[in-house]
Amino acid sequence: MAYKTTEFNTASPVSALPGVGPAKQAAYKKIGVSTLGDLINHVPRAYENRGEIRPLDCSRDDGKTAVVLTVCTPVQSSRLRGGKTVIKFRASDDSGLCDLVFFNQPYLKGTFVTGSVWRFWGKVERRLTRNGMRYSMSSPVYERWEPGMLQDFTPVYPLTEGLTQKQIARDIAETLRLLSPQITDILPQEIISKYRLCTLAYALRNIHNPENYPALAAAKRRLVFDELFTFSLLVARQGMHRRETGAFPCVKQNISPLLSLLPFELTEAQKRCVREIAADMKTDVRMSRILIGDVGSGKTAVAAAAICICLMNGRQAALMAPTEILASQHYSDLSPVFEKLGFRCALLTGSVSAAQKKRIKAGLSADGEEKIDLVIGTHALLTEDVAFSSLSLIVTDEQHRFGVEQRAALAEKGLFPHMLSMSATPIPRSLALVLYGDLDISRIDEMPPGRQKTDTYLVDESKRARVNAFIERTVADGGQVYVVCPSIDEQENETYDSGEVGLDEITESGLLSKPPLKAAKVYAEQLRQTLPGITVALIHGRMKAAEKEAVMTGFVAGDINVLVSTTVIEVGVNVANASLMIIENAERFGLSQLHQLRGRVGRGKRKSCCILISDDSSVSSHERLSVMCETNNGFEIAEADLRTRGPGDFIAAHRGDAIRQSGGFKFRLADVSGDAGAFACATEAAREIITTDPDLSAHPLLKDYIDKTAAAGTITD
Ligand code: ADP
Ligand code: MG
């Protein structure tokens, strides 16, 4: 080509490439590709596994197959009506004979010489004839067979109208050629060697054009590492500047009057959390703490202790919940206690009358007798024009966290309150350190006494009859049953065509393979037939809101015995009478997700059970799922989840949190990572760098990259 490679850099528009005009440029834009840099970061979603060669008689009937055949007849060429040319020949392997047809490629006549050997990739059709099975392929991809020389994994890119696989592959190859001298590694050499990573240039080359499987796995590992490392570094850097002073030191800390009003004694874990909070509140350094504990672990009592300390010191506290219902619930739980202790409480939500609102606001800005000490409301509480006379503590339920901006807004009002957030999502310590890098963490890792345990069993398909009998028995007993399936229809069963390997199936220890998915629709129908006399209903995310509502109402009322669903029931269902949870294809779920699902039973007086069904016979899957049978502790499960399932999946499962916390960092590759060690390594590497070189001045390339990423708005706080 006639251009100099130095004219191009990662910021050049894709239209700089030969053959990319305005139309192609617009198409690229639709898939988020504007520059050459974007293009080389446009990673395949899957790979055609042409390296998995099958004999003709074992070809896939549901997708493309790679076969290696020897041409055994001369090529015949003919002309069809309408001017189309067609060439035909036969080729064989040890298992059969195949008719090959190519249209409009007359030049191939001389290519397929009798006796030559080819790898063909395409759909193998079969037809039973008098002479046995006959196979045929129409216009397959062909490559001259040279053992060990052909590329086994061919990328499959996410596409949009106006782009073809061929074009993208060609453009990427060209871009890599043009930019390769300029691809500089942002990772410091010591990290690359310490974590045995490949170079960035190698990774990019092999993610697009894998030399072989190990090269592909290494490439993916490196790119996933980069993503997690960048994420960790950004979050770690955000967490650096805190320890703001100006908060009110709450030195009076004797909360025994509160404790004597509670109908129970605090657990050891609750006591520890109260101590940690009390120590923070004693100083003028503003508390920034998150209280993490499973649903039902008793976070409210700990929050009450913090509120009590604040009020005892003559200061005001605010408690905020994500919904009005939760706010009202907190109000009815807490206000009687605090009123008894002589404090004034108010509930401020959208449904409070204007007159009432006015009175509450007056009370919040008042001093002395008129002062409202504790206000409970939704997260909107602080955005209203509320003036506080002496606000010194803000507690937020469900991990609504205050960012720099909100803290600044409060400071403008002259407020430097201590802050306590609460989260019901147990996450591993290492992840918490990253996601909540700028917060101190308190964990309630123990349940109040007397909770019944949900017994959990892991079984395979061979126990189906017994599972059904269990369902019958539970229903006969007056109980109700949840069945969770990972997919709705059978069609959506596989995200990839067969013959393709998803990027998520690439791991360093080899290709993953997954048992087929159980579909909710089909399963609901089967259950209806197997268990006549039992009312089975189906609920899934594609149903209309009203339909879902009707089904849920029926289940809550007890008219429906068995509810077959996808994971939509994860959110906000509380049916105390449900005592059996069955989870199909349990191997498809993260442990933390299984834990959440299991939490739907065991809420009433009935002895509850959870049955995990999985036909994944791999040791790793079995070990992973066994954790569920051994513990009900959300933290232990989260640790195991991160350890065994991989950081990408894990973060993806906690995406809501992760993204909120990080202000919108988008993972592309980490989502599909199955490399369990990567997250821990990336986090560790990021922490090492940030502690030894807080402003990254010793790592200018990295600093530049991180600054750019932050400026691009992927992270904001
Ligand atoms: P969550 O952490 O989900 O907010 P809650 O604070 O609502 O949990 O507590 C759940 C239930 O456990 C409440 O009914 C509460 O009264 C009770 N509870 C909390 N702490 C204890 C304790 N130490 N001993 C016994 N019951 C407790
Ligand atoms: Mg709660």
Q: What overall form do the CA principal axes indicate? A: globular
| Rg, Å, rounded | 31 Å
For the record, the CATH class of the largest domain is Alpha Beta
Count of structural domains: 4
Which ligands, by name, code or SMILES, are bound?
A: adenosine-5'-diphosphate, magnesium ion
Overall pLDDT confidence: 85
Residue stretches low in confidence (pLDDT < 50, at least 5 long) are 655-663, 713-717
Keyphrases for this structure?
37% helix, alpha/beta, OB fold (Dihydrolipoamide Acetyltransferase, E2P), binds adenosine-5'-diphosphate, 717 residues, Rossmann fold, seven-stranded parallel sheet
How are the elements arranged and paired?
Blueprint: H1 22-30, H2 36-40, E1 46-49, E2 64-71, E3 76-79, E4 85-93, E5 96-103, E6 117-123, E7 125-129, E8 132-138, E9 141-144, E10 153-156, H3 165-179, H4 189-194, H5 200-208, H6 213-238, H7 256-261, H8 268-281, E11 288-293, H9 299-312, E12 316-321, H10 324-340, E13 345-348, H11 354-365, E14 374-378, E15 391-396, H12 404-412, E16 418-423, H13 429-435, E17 440-444, E18 455-459, H14 464-476, E19 480-484, E20 500-502, H15 520-530, E21 536-539, H16 545-557, E22 562-565, E23 578-583, H17 591-598, E24 609-613, H18 619-630, H19 634-645, H20 647-653, H21 655-662, H22 676-692, H23 700-711
Parallel strand pairs: 5-8, 11-16, 11-17, 12-14, 12-15, 13-14, 15-16, 18-24, 19-22, 19-23, 21-22, 23-24
Antiparallel strand pairs: 1-10, 1-20, 2-4, 2-6, 3-4, 4-5, 6-9, 7-8
Helix pairs in contact: 5-6, 6-22, 8-9, 18-19, 19-20
Bound molecules: adenosine-5'-diphosphate and magnesium ion (MG).
Adenosine-5'-diphosphate binds at residues 264, 266-267, 270, 293, 295-301, 424, 448.
